[in-house]
Amino acid sequence: MLPMPRDLNAAGDIFGGWVMSQVDVAGSIAAMRRTRCRVVTVAVNSFVFLQPITTQYLVSFYARVARVGTTSIVVDVDVYAETGYENLRVLKVATAQLTYVAMNEDGSKRAIPPDPAKP
Ligand SMILES: CC(C)(COP(=O)(O)OP(=O)(O)OC[C@H]1O[C@@H](n2cnc3c(N)ncnc32)[C@H](O)[C@@H]1OP(=O)(O)O)[C@@H](O)C(=O)NCCC(=O)NCCS
To answer: Cβ distance 46 to 96 under 8 Å?
Structure first.
């Protein structure tokens, strides 16, 4: 993602809520790929901002499944920001862990099926 001026806070850095929103989206994609259904966020287990970022950065979100429960799935998300054209700098700017719950179309919880990639 390339943050826009509208994503800044009053101090001129990227608003933390913007980063949290993108982290939730990235985590939900990893959760949906594993559960193969829609998910809802039930908890943000941890969220740490490590460095401030500005509009000059390209921000990338890397999500991976940490564990799978009966209906819930825990996803770790790391956020990296890169800046500079000739002297590229890449910084880890945030790290988070979120829990999602697998949902049926009618809004009820559903059991997460076994991972087809692990026979
Ligand atoms: C998510 C939701 C369906 C859970 O319903 P529930 O009947 O309370 O579910 P349970 O208490 O049985 O928990 C379901 C699973 O979530 C886990 N869970 C529940 N609360 C949790 C919490 N605070 N932290 C981590 N995991 C949690 C449970 O351990 C369980 O996991 P498991 O099935 O793998 O053992 C319900 O709370 C809900 O709809 N919340 C709103 C979700 C939402 O709108 N999210 C978007 C907000 S921006």
So the answer is: yes
Binding pocket residue ranges, ligand 1, CB within 6 Å: 40-43, 69-72, 99, 101, 109
Nearest CA to ligand 1 atom 28: 72
Give domain status of residue 113, yes or no.
no
Residue 10 is assigned to a structural domain of this protein: yes
What is the number of domains present in the chain?
1
Question: Which of 34, 38, 42 for mutating ligand 1's site (highest number of atoms within 8 Å of CB)?
Answer: 42
16-56 residue pLDDT tens: 999 999 999 999 999 999 999 999 999 999 999 999 998 88
- CA-nearest residue for atom 17, ligand 1, is 72
